[in-house]
Amino acid sequence: MTIDAIDFSRLYQSHLALAARTRKNAGAWDTRAAGMAARALHSRYAQDFVARMDLTGAQSLLDVGCGPGTIALAVAPRLRRVVGLDYSGAMLEALRDQAAARGLTHVQTLHRAWEDDWSDVPVCDIAVASRATLVDDIAAALVRLDAHARLRVYLTHPVGGHFTDPAIQRVVGRSVPGTPDYIYLVNILHRMGIHPRIDYLTQESRLADAQGFDDYAQRVAWSLGELDEQERDRLRAWYERATPAERAGAPMRWAFISWEKSPC
Ligand SMILES: C[S@@+](CC[C@H](N)C(=O)[O-])C[C@H]1O[C@@H](n2cnc3c(N)ncnc32)[C@H](O)[C@@H]1O
C-alpha cells in the first residue's frame, strides 16, 4: 500500500464528524461578530498573517469566511477591490461598518457560504481564508479557493485542532476530540498537484482577557459545548486558584499555508 491509497478528504470528513458537538452555524457566528470586530482587527495574529502576504502585482482580493474583515480591511488600502464573503450576516455588517468608518468604499460583502452556489463570486488576484476552513467538504473548499485566485492563495488552519487547551478541558472533566488539523489540507493539496509553503502563526489565547468568571466560562463553552452545572462548578473552583497564565492556557497555533498560481 502507498500513500496514494489514502482518501484524505474522506478521512477529514470522518475526523470532523467526531467534533460535531462543537460545530458552529451562521447564527452562532452572528453572536461573535461584535466581539471579533473589537479584538481580531487589531490583533497580533492579523499583523502576523498580513506580514506574510505578498501583494506584488495584485489589485483585488477575495476573503472567504472574512468575519469582521480581519484580513480584508488590513490590506484594503493597498488594493482596488476587496470582497469579503461570509455566511454570517452580522459579521458582514461589522465589516461594512468598519470599512465605512475607514472610508474604504471599494470593499464589498457577499452573504454566502462555502457550500453555496459560487457562480457569481469574482475571481481575484489573491484569495484568502483565515481561520475559516472547518468545512464539511475541505477538498471542494480548496478547489474553490484555488480557482478564485489569479496569483496567490493564503489560508490558516489549526495545528492540533484544539481551540481550548486540553489542560483546561481536563479541569472541566471533558475530553473534546480535536478538529482535523492542517496536515489533511497539505495532503489534499498535494493530491491536487499543489505544493504549498507552510509557516506557523500563534494566536493569543481567547481566554486571557476574559472579564471575570462568567465571561471565562462562556468562552470555554464556545469551544467545548455547553457546560453542565458540575462542569461549571469544577471550572470555577479551579479558576479561583489558577494563575492568569494557567487560566489563559497554551496559545493556539495555526498553520499558514500559501501557494502561488502557476502561469497558464
Ligand atoms: C474564526 S472566524 C474567522 C474570521 C476572520 N477570517 C478572522 O480570521 O478573524 C470564522 C468565520 O468563518 C465564517 N464561516 C464559518 N463557516 C462558514 C461557511 N460554511 N461559509 C461561510 N462562512 C463561514 C464564520 O461566520 C466566521 O465569520
Q: Can you put this structure into words, describing what you see?
A:
The structure is a single chain. The protein has one domain: Vaccinia Virus protein VP39 (Rossmann fold), CATH 3.40.50. Helix 6 links the parallel strand 4 and strand 5. By secondary structure, it is an alpha/beta fold. Helix 1 runs antiparallel to helix 8 and helix 2 runs parallel beside helix 5. Helices cover 41% and strands 19% of the residues. The two termini are 34 Å apart. It has a seven-stranded mixed β-sheet, with helices on both faces. Bound molecules: S-adenosylmethionine. S-adenosylmethionine (SAM) binds next to helix 2.
Quickly list its features.
single chain; 264 residues; alpha/beta; Rossmann fold; 7-stranded mixed beta sheet; 11 helices; 7 strands; 19% strand; binds S-adenosylmethionine
Helicity, in percent?
40-55%
The ligands found in this model are: S-adenosylmethionine
Secondary structure: number of strands: 7
The N- to C-terminal Cα distance equals: 34 Å
